[in-house]
Design brief:
The structure is a homodimer.
Chain A lengths: L2 H14 L2 H9 L3 H10 L2 H10 L2 H8 L4 H10 L2 H10 L2 H10 L2 H10 L2 H12 L5 H4 L6 E2 L5 H11 L9 E5 L5 E6 H6 L6 H4 L7 E2 L4 H11 L3 E5 L5 E6 H19 L9 H6 L2 H28 L1 H6 L2 H4 L1 H25 L7 H31 L2 H31 L8 H27 L2
Parallel strand pairs in A: 1-2, 4-5
Antiparallel strand pairs in A: 2-3, 5-6
């Protein structure tokens, strides 16, 4: 599907005002495609299209739309229709939409929704939205351990027709709703129909706690690779479940945060969506803190360079090599930071293998440094016809690149060892450190050269 | 579970040579935990533990281990046992393990495996491992459209007990194995048992083609959020299916590649695992190409600076500000690159919204630039007691930061518009460009200052 051409066709149909044709056109698309189309439409076009969808499809579509558009559309259709759509959503999705509204607006909707549904959604809204409690779907299919496979299948036939129930596993609970075991649908379908649930359930369950945070939830899903995990409270009472598609969005968000942080964009105070498309001052607020740190660090670099001011008058070409040294030091240092931060994040680098990585990276940095140092030596020698200057710049390059690798490798590991997230702004701080140290090395070499050789 | 302490306990048990106790200890862990433990053990300890597992658990564990350890363990146990473990694996997992072995080694195993299984695995090995064909599991539960729900449930009861079948959806095919529709287990379990499959199946199917590449597969899974997608050949014949957990690993790999590329590490010729822990020369090969580009770019910067050599003799302090300008320009430019590359990758930035983002980023860059320019102006004025120099450095800073933002925003979008992956080495190229342009601006301002004011 070419979204752009579909969007143009839909615009033409809207302009011709032939709503029947528009409805037919919209019906041909999967809701995931519709979500892409809606993203490209203007708000009024979006609303026209949305009003033509039946409740089922509108509810399905909601789950694929981004929060901004969800709230916009629900606010623009009549409240009756909005309430009907909301009750078709899984509770966690409904809670997400309502959580993104202003408080009084969401209260209006909650009052209009069926009592049981709104009570359950209200409970979800009491949890921090970054915890398992805030993410889970509270509607879970539960059975008792003394039921037979046949009983369970009958129970599913009756209960699982509700729109907002997701079905991956059947959870076994006692009469106080304590989680006892889990049975996969596959196990259920391949077991003799008279067998008791307690004989086929797995009782050694991987489960989440309502207060578990998103990064822990991602780790658990990544590690155990289940489609869904149950969520329990402090007393092991089953409160809901989280499915892999919830985690998928979360995983993408966390990855985005990790990537943005590594280039010095703070995602703690400003939501990552807003950095790209929200209020401009929020974006500025997210971007300036680490720029300040760079500013302070580079003032130190300026001070170092200033200290060697007489050198510039004596041998001005020395200054011209500064960007070369800083550029390559920064580049190879960033490579090391990136490798370490990513390796720590995926688990390929562990604290027990830290020493191995430090030694390995140092060797790699030294080899690349010597190689590039040699090139720079020859290039400078050829260009300025001074082997002395060539040696100074080449040696500075070799030392600089090696040190940049060491600093870029050590710092994330050091931060990790004191439990600071190495992704947070390692980048700018390390880049600045490399700049300052690189200049010190370079100017020291230049000074030795000037004193002893020239 | 604290992996480190478990590993130590296991080492103690191995040293005491009490294998019965070791077997009991190992049985208490989930295979995902065992995989973490195995990762930390030494090869001989790993082997001792692996030999104690029963075939079922050993096969389960295989799927959680990394390829290196999989091949190592299978090579070290006797071939009989290795074959039994392989036949318990889903075909795609078995093909992955065999694909990672030397050709003659994998042939030895393939000859030992049951004929049907080895034929199916051989077929998988003919596909490129980055395509749907190379990733799919060919064992899929299929039914005919005129079967009733009851027939299907009976069919599942008989067929789905094989270890290597994954069960998420039931696929409906005609007698030539052409894919006609799909039924979810939930739909199956909640439909009347006499209903025909053709009445409950979805025939508008999201499917993959055997030749589809991994990035397309990821996009489809991310977009439609299904647990599994069917894979068909050119003639719409069902060949297998891919499940979300396969895609999850793929997604993590692609994300790692995107992150490494953005810092100028080439992942095209060298596998990303090897960059962190393989042969050192491969790591060097992955890291040097973009360092060379930086080297060439920075030689241009050196040339620019060299052109202004007389300035350094006249007003040597000018040189000292170079790292400050380059550092902050590089930092804010990197922020913009990161935002654009990530936004393009997640779909938050589209080509139709490109102009909006360019304007928005430029405004943000200008505002931050003016702000930092002002700070630098005041700091320099105060430090060197020269308002003229302060103005030059402050203005250079403002222009530099604004331009860095524009270059950092425009370049990824321009690359994308000519269908070049913007993640590939945008970073180093743009950083170098910003350095060169920044120096030109700075020295031009300095020259004007020297001519007109001093």
């Amino acid at each position: 599907m070419n979204t752009q051409s579909v969007v143009e066709r839909i615009r033409e149909i809207i302009d011709d005002d032939t709503l029947v044709q528009l409805r037919e056109e919209l019906e041909t698309y999967h809701v995931a495609d519709l979500a892409d189309i809606f993203q490209e439409l203007k708000p009024d076009e979006r609303l026209t299209c949305f009003k033509l969808l039946d409740v089922e499809k509108a509810a399905d579509l909601m789950e694929y739309l981004n929060p901004q558009i969800q709230v916009e559309l629900l606010g623009d259709i009549d409240e009756e229709m909005a309430s009907r759509i909301l009750t078709k959503l899984p509770h966690d999705a409904a809670a997400d939409v309502l959580g993104d509204m202003e408080d009084d607006e969401s209260e209006t909707y909650l009052d209009k929704l069926p009592h049981k549904f709104s009570e359950e959604v209200r409970e979800l809204l009491t949890y921090d939205e970054d915890t398992a409690g805030g993410m889970m779907n509270p509607v879970v299919l539960t059975v008792n351990s003394d039921m037979s496979v046949k009983d369970v299948l009958n129970h599913i036939r009756i209960s699982a027709t509700e729109d907002n129930m997701e079905l991956y596993y059947v959870y076994v609970v006692d009469k106080h709703n304590h989680l006892m075991g889990v049975v996969s649908l596959r196990r259920l379908l391949t077991s003799p129909i008279n067998q008791k649930v307690q004989d086929i359930m797995i009782s050694d369950i991987v489960k989440l706690h309502v207060d578990d945070y998103s990064d822990f939830i991602i780790d658990e899903f990544m590690k155990y690779q289940y489609n869904a995990l149950p969520v329990v409270d402090l007393y092991n009472r089953l409160k809901g479940m989280i499915t892999w598609d919830d985690v998928h969005d979360l995983f993408e968000e966390e990855t985005t945060e990790e990537i943005l942080q590594s280039s010095g964009i703070s995602t703690e105070v400003v939501d990552e969506d807003e950095i790209l498309s929200g209020n401009m001052f929020k974006a500025i607020r997210a971007r300036t803190p680490w720029l300040f740190i760079t500013l302070l660090g580079e003032f130190v670099a300026v001070h170092v360079a200033n200290h060697f001011e007489p050198t510039f008058s004596l041998l001005p070409i020395v200054a011209a090599f500064m960007p070369l040294l800083a550029g390559l030091g920064g580049n190879i240092g960033t490579q090391s930071i990136t490798l370490m931060v990513r390796g720590l994040s995926t688990g390929q680098v562990t604290m027990s293998s830290a020493l191995h990585h430090i030694i390995r990276e140092t060797c790699i940095g030294a080899m690349i440094g010597l190689f590039f140092g040699m090139i720079v030596l020859l290039a400078t020698w050829g260009w300025k016809d001074s082997i002395g200057l060539g040696c100074v710049v080449g040696l500075a390059m070799a030392v600089n690149m090696t040190m940049a690798t060491v600093i870029g490798t050590l710092t994330p590991l050091a931060l990790k060892s004191i439990n600071v997230d190495p992704a947070v702004a390692s980048g700018p701080v390390i880049a600045t450190t490399i700049d300052v140290v690189g200049l010190l090395v370079y100017f020291s070499l230049v000074s030795i050269y000037l004193v002893h050789i020239v």
